[in-house]
Automatic annotation (TrEMBL):
Residues 91-151, 171-261 form the Solute-binding protein family 3/N-terminal domain. Keywords: Signal. Residues 1-20 form the signal peptide. It is found in: Cell envelope. Residues 9-86 form the SsuA/THI5-like domain. The keyword Signal applies. GO terms for cellular component: cell envelope. This is ABC-type amino acid transport/signal transduction systems periplasmic component/domain-like protein. Pfam families: NMT1, SBP_bac_3. Belongs to the bacterial solute-binding protein 3 family.
Length: 262
């Protein structure tokens, strides 16, 4: 399953908006980050983009509009309701690819390390997950997963669940299936880079993996209340979030970028 296939369903709403015709309410031209001053910017609630744009007073954004899903923010951009969208780089590439008239500005907003969220103080699980991450990095499993979902490397393939004994219970993973290629819905399943990585870790730990889809800003609460064991959703390791949960070692470095109209 390549990235284009992953996005087919998720992008349907955005594409329909494109076909319906774009409003020209916003005529703001944004070519560099400094051009965001005085503009209206869309973000997905609770994401790193939300935190950065809301807290970055030097950015000079006039209004921050919050959306439950990333594609809803992109749809508003297409309709001219907002001037830009701040979002993770990989979903941004897919949205731009599928919607004529959008672009990602060349200037990078910020880079960020993605890690697995774990209940604060659960050092036993954290140590096991860090050891598993180290193992899949060393044996090439993680790179193979990245090659398939992000690199589109010829000959790459999705991770295949291993036939191993699972005597150690169930690893419950909280995620938000709105971030392809990290996670998205295909049929009745949540698929993507994060899901394959979590499955590889569960295989090593001798556990079953249960994936639970929820709003992004509910993930940390589910971890802190013990409803989920881990949070895997392109989750950025930040000092603010460390007040509530612990993080594993980083498994991928992503970027926040800005989508605007051409």
């Amino acid at each position: 399953m390549k990235l284009k296939k992953v996005m087919a369903v998720v992008l349907a709403g955005v594409m329909m908006a494109s076909l319906a015709g774009c409003s020209t309410k916003s005529n703001v031209k944004i070519n560099v980050i400094a051009d965001l001053k005085g503009t209206t910017v869309g973000v997905q609630t609770g994401t790193t983009g939300d935190i950065l744009v809301t807290d970055d007073k030097e950015l000079g954004v006039k209004t921050v509009e919050h959306y439950n899903k990333g594609f809803e923010a992109v749809q508003s951009l297409i309709q001219g309701k907002i001037d830009a969208v701040v979002i993770d780089d990989q979903p941004a590439k897919v949205f731009v690819e599928k919607n004529k008239g959008l672009k990602i500005i060349d200037e990078e907003y910020t880079s960020e390390d993605y890690a697995i969220g774990i209940a604060k103080g659960n050092t036993e699980l954290k140590d096991k997950i860090n050891a598993a991450i180290a193992q899949i990095k060393e044996d090439g499993t993680l790179q193979g997963i990245i090659d398939y979902y992000i690199g589109n490397v010829e000959g790459s393939s999705p991770y295949v669940k291993k036939d191993v004994e699972r005597p150690n219970g169930t690893l419950v993973m909280a995620t938000n299936a709105e971030f392809p290629p990290y996670e998205s819905i295909e049929g009745n399943s949540v698929v993507g880079l994060d899901v394959d990585m979590a499955q590889a870790i569960a295989d090593i730990l001798g556990m079953d993996l249960k994936v639970e889809d929820m709003a992004f800003d509910s993930i940390i609460a589910n971890i802190t209340t013990g409803k989920s064991d881990i949070g895997v959703a392109g989750l950025t390791d930040t000092e603010d979030r460390r007040q509530s949960i612990d993080f594993s070692d980083s498994y991928y470095t992503g970027r926040q970028v800005i989508i605007v109209k051409e």
